[in-house]
Amino acid sequence: RIEADEARHADLGWQILRWATQSGGTDARDAVRSLRDVDPAPACITEAGDDGAAYGRLSAAQINAVTERNQTVSQRRLDGLLSDRGQGCISRA
User: Fold this and answer.
1) What is the three-class DSSP state of 54?
2) Would you say 40 and 71 are in contact if contact means Cβ atoms under 8 Å apart?
3) Which is more confident, 15 or 60?
């Protein structure tokens, strides 16, 4: 349930970015485009405490893998948003 809730929140954020680029003019589009140059400085977790696995807590390796995957997907979505084809639906691929 939490995962679905968070996915809806993330999708709302992407919808707002799409709306801003379509409705906000050049300044808004340039501001969104500047996000492409932000280095998210990936957080490399080295210790997450393996004692929480029985309660669903991710290991450091799992956290790092999820973070990297999310960064890749987000960059792809931002690229799609900023391309000419980004005027329509934003894919989560």
Assistant:
1) helix
2) yes
3) 15
First to last CA, the chain: 21
User: For 20-25, which contacts have Cβ atoms below 8 Å and span 24 or more sequence positions?
Assistant: 21/81, 21/82, 21/86, 22/87
Tell me the whole-structure pTM to 2 decimals.
Answer: 0.69
What whole-number distance in Å separates Cα of residue 55 and Cα of residue 37?
Answer: 37
Q: Which residues contact 76 (CB under 8 A, 6 or more apart)?
A: 93
For residues 68 and 42, the answer to whether their CB atoms sit within 8 Å is yes
Flag whether pLDDT at 41 surpasses 70: no
- Taking alpha carbons only, the member of 81, 88, 4, 78 closest to residue 37 is 78
Q: Can you tell me the distance from the alpha carbon of 90 to that of 15, in angstroms, rounded to the nearest whole number?
A: 8
Tokens of 79: 């690229």
